Amino acid sequence: MTPRSISRRFAVGGGLALFSAPVLAQHAGHGPVYERLNQPGRIDVPAIAAEQRVFDSIAPRAPQQGRWIERAPLPLPRTEMAWAAERNGKLHLVGGYAEQRVDKPYHHIYDAAANSWLQAQDLPLGANHVGVAVLDGRLYALGGFIDQNRRPHAECFVFGAEGERWSKIAPLPTPMGAMGCIAYEGRIHAVGGADGDTAEARLSRSQHIVYDPKTDKWSNAAPLPTARDHIGIVANAGLIHVIGGRVNSFYTNSHLHHTYDAKEDAWRMRNPLPTARSGHGATLYRGQIFCMGGEGSNRVFGQNEAYDPTTDKWLAYAPMATPRHGMGAVAIGDAIYVAGGGPVMGGGVKSAVHEAFTLA
Description:
Blueprint: E1 9-10, E2 18-19, E3 34-36, E4 39-43, H1 48-52, E5 53-54, E6 67-70, E7 85-87, E8 90-94, E9 107-111, E10 116-119, E11 131-135, E12 138-147, E13 150-160, E14 163-169, E15 180-184, E16 187-191, E17 194-195, E18 203-204, E19 208-212, E20 217-220, E21 232-236, E22 239-243, E23 246-247, E24 249-253, E25 257-261, E26 266-269, E27 281-285, E28 288-292, E29 295-296, E30 299-301, E31 304-308, E32 313-317, E33 330-332, E34 335-339, E35 349-351, E36 354-358
């Protein structure tokens, strides 16, 4: 079934499944929710997923662990899309791997109140690892890779400036994919990323560029101290946090944690991420920065670790029920939503898994 034949809204019946411990779940009632990149047809979760999943954190355990809740699965398995973004109380996912291609333009929207998915206008240019951010009610999609985690493009688009559709804006100064993007003080910051047309030439970058929607222009800011891509990025209390990521490859994942102060145009080291990883979700929830999922060498991380900016300390919370990478995380209401992603290392398997974490 292709997205062209899917109805505009995907309703889900039945109750919620609560997870108190990590499980190898198929999401009961929905059938298989996995698919290989190079072969059509739904499959059960690959057996190797159980070997690659890692749950233990070196961070102290939080007194209140929270729990994971099964949510409506994605309309089709996807991974390596743009990191998720929240717009007007809904989760947006654009681009990525799906249906045996790595340059899909799909744009799905999750309505948490209805626990259902909508299909919005496709991206004008399909790609994976697109940078996304929301500013003043508008969704920005920046760059991305045309090939499998390589061959970046520079095209940029905004959704919501002229109705519920995409409009073209100024391109990136340099083609880039896997950037961390965030809205901050009326502008969009794009940090890090990678370029290169082949796997051998693909390199992480330390670039830090800023888009001003009022002038439709890009400018330079202080570069990230250590070049990396597939990072987690969150803005909070006057600072931009860049957490984890990889230096050229997930074989050299980083636990570095930097904050950027725009007033000083300078970066500062913070307490490192306990579990070095890349391709993880990061979002602000209840005043803390939560980082979950990600991948490494023969590893798919389920760790769910949160940073308290007031104490500069990390705590470990209930790990993901279904560890994944290549997905995003957004907080809506009193929960963090994590949809899609890869259940095994690399981009060979996609998932439609969708689960939410809550401390409620």
